[in-house]
């Protein structure tokens, strides 16, 4: 039996386990990346392991999230990360150099290599044939130290793309169609591989848009073949020697297969407040638009912004619309400046933002009250924009630009003939904003620079014999990491200060939650389906740990968050019978008798509702290795005990 692309990469990097769906496998990791919102914690964890030098082929620290500096906190964190990078063998991408996924695709990504990053959109690297996965900061720290990255062997899903896209329909519309088909939980436990004759018509930036938003499917990752299109991109980046051809075997077997006729697609949008709430632009109609934001790691490539510039050239943004554009990298920004496209954007009335994540994570440019904001981003969760009642629609750059001119949601197909935008034969290459680490022989003299905002990360002790605590919070389906631990300009600067961040935990759902936790001292969170979807931020596990959360009992988990809970030493449980969810009320007294023995011996997990006088069975969502981790009190304790 033949192998898929992902199976070939997994097979060549397999350290432990067998390639049987659902089994625990350990993978050798070639590359890692971090960004500054998650990186500080990841590097504190790396320091705690006592490894003097990273053992990966390439590790890169990017500054792209917390670039709004209204106090000393972000600047201190950046200085800390740069000093850590210099000392421990990590390349450092300075503020202004660009968004981690865009820059990594341009300058570091290599087909056939494994990559994990402390950002859920790391699968962007699948656009050039990498096995690229989002992970918690602790997992990234372990990989930097030379340890394997563990996942459950995923199912393989094939999506065949046929034909070519019509005029004004883009890669964003392809992934929106996939989200419409599969939903935000349709990719959980799966790797999405794209194939078919339509793949050859898509450039690497277009492929990267699709793999980037595969994170919104809940997929482990998404991947494209590495073909002549990939080679042309790498050669244009001056990295032709990094190219390797990768394709699936003709007799590869997939668990699921889908067919998409590219010619049948039309411009679409994800409506508030979920990336899978997809409708066509014509179905939604000409709603008034208040704001348009173009950029993010999804749609900020040279190709994307050249298309936007061609639409805006010689025109003026509608007076009722605020248009902001953020190039994805310094390379993109420079090339737009040199060829005159940047001047076209400015002349049209666009506000040019720095090369960073910016509005995508609520770092500025929040829309007006109940304002409608069209964004080329990847997530439109409620409140993520920074405006609690903001109405965010996810659209393509073409739809965004057309709508910015008209002031209403506009199908770009109404613009007439589409201008052809060719891929450059040579990109502008200037890596002067990427700082190499100090040579190993000089690393000992490098001082780590810490600011007062950097606090120790919380740790937990061994799993208790019995857990008795109240159902301190009950929430519904599709709770995101933005619900658990919000982002935004008011909170992100404190990513290295867990005590301060705890004041905002679950504030979107229940503002009284932090104080209730402090009053009770411990608790169990109860939730519905797809709990923890969204960002890889391990703060959504570390902050509840700090607040005394002992277990999270839900109908189902998103992959990364479930792993982060186990890493932190919080017990992830699912209802064996989902109907038992309805029988629990918030603040019911719950008890998990002999839970340590049940976890250690694969026994039944019994949940007693002391308040109601009932009991039911739950299941621990843990591999054997994760059981040992939770028993030890988390990954850090487990690593110390086993080294």
Automatic annotation (TrEMBL):
Instruction: Tell me where in this chain the Aconitase/3-isopropylmalate dehydratase large subunit alpha/beta/alpha domain is found.
Output: 7-283, 284-407
**Source species, domain of life:** Bacteria
Q: For this UniProt record, give its keywords in alphabetical order, as a comma-separated list.
A: Iron, Iron-sulfur, Lyase, Metal-binding
Put simply, this protein is called Aconitate hydratase
E.C. numbers: 4.2.1.3
| GO function terms (MF aspect) | 4 iron, 4 sulfur cluster binding; aconitate hydratase activity; metal ion binding
Residues in Aconitase A/isopropylmalate dehydratase small subunit swivel domain copies: 520-577
């Amino acid at each position: 039996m033949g192998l898929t692309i992902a199976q070939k990469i997994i097979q060549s990097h397999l350290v432990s386990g067998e390639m049987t769906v659902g089994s625990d496998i350990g993978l050798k990791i070639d590359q890692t990346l971090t960004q500054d919102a998650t990186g500080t914690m990841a590097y504190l964890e790396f320091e705690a392991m006592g490894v003097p030098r990273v053992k990966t082929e390439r590790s890169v620290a990017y500054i792209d999230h917390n670039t709004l500096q209204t106090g000393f906190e972000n600047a201190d964190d950046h200085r800390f990360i740069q000093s850590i990078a210099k000392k421990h063998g990590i390349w450092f991408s300075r503020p202004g150099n660009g968004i981690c996924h865009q820059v990594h695709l341009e300058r570091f990504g290599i087909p056939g290599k494994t990559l994990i990053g402390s950002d859920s959109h790391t699968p962007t690297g699948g656009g050039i044939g990498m096995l690229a996965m989002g992970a918690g900061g602790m997992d990234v720290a372990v990989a930097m130290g030379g340890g394997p990255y563990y996942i459950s062997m995923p199912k393989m899903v094939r999506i065949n793309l046929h034909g070519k896209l019509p005029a004004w329909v883009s890669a964003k519309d392809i992934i929106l169609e996939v989200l419409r088909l599969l939903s935000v939980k349709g990719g959980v436990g799966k790797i999405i591989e794209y194939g078919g004759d339509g793949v050859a018509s898509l450039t690497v930036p277009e492929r990267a848009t699709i793999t980037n938003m595969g994170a919104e499917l809940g997929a482990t990752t998404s991947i494209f073949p590495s073909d002549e299109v990939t080679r042309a991109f790498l050669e244009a980046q001056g990295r032709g020697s990094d190219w390797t051809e990768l394709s699936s075997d003709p007799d590869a077997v997939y668990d699921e297969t889908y067919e998409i006729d590219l010619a049948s697609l039309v411009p679409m949008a994800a409506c508030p407040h979920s990336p899978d709430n997809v409708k066509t632009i014509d179905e939604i109609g000409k709603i008034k638009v208040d704001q348009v934001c173009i950029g993010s790691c999804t749609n900020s490539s040279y190709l994307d912004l050249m298309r936007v510039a061609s639409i805006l050239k010689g025109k003026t943004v509608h007076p009722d619309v605020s248009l902001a554009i953020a190039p994805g990298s310094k390379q993109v920004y420079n090339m737009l400046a040199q060829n005159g496209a940047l001047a076209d954007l400015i002349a049209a009335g666009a506000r040019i933002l720095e090369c960073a994540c910016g509005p995508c994570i609520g770092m500025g440019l929040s829309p007006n009250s109940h304002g409608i904001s069209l964004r080329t981003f990847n997530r439109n969760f409620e409140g993520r924009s920074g405006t609690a009642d903001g109405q965010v629609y996810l659209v393509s750059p073409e739809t965004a630009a057309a709508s910015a001119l008209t002031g209403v949601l506009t199908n770009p197909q109404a613009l007439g003939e589409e201008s052809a935008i060719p891929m450059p034969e040579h990109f502008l290459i200037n890596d002067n904003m990427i700082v190499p680490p100090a040579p190993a022989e000089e690393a000992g003299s490098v001082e780590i620079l810490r600011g007062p905002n950097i606090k120790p990360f919380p740790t937990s002790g061994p799993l208790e014999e019995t857990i008795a605590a109240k159902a301190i919070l009950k929430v519904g389906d599709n709770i995101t990491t933005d619900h658990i631990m919000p982002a935004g300009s008011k909170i992100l600067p404190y990513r290295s200060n867990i005590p301060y961040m705890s004041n905002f935990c679950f504030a979107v759902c229940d503002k009284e939650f932090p104080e209730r936790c402090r009053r009770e001292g411990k608790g169990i969170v109860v939730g519905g389906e797809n709990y923890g979807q969204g960002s890889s931020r391990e703060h959504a596990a570390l902050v509840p740990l700090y607040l005394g959360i002992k277990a999270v009992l839900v109908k189902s988990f998103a992959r990364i968050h479930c792993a982060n809970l186990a890493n932190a030493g919080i017990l992830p449980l699912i209802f064996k019978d989902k109907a038992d969810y309805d029988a629990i009320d918030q603040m019911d007294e719950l008890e998990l008798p002999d839970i340590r023995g049940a976890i250690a011996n694969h026994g039944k997990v019994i949940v007693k509702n002391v308040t109601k006088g009932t009991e039911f069975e739950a299941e621990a969502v843990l591999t054997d290795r994760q059981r040992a981790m939770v028993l030890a009190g988390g990954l850090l304790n487990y690593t110390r005990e086993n080294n």
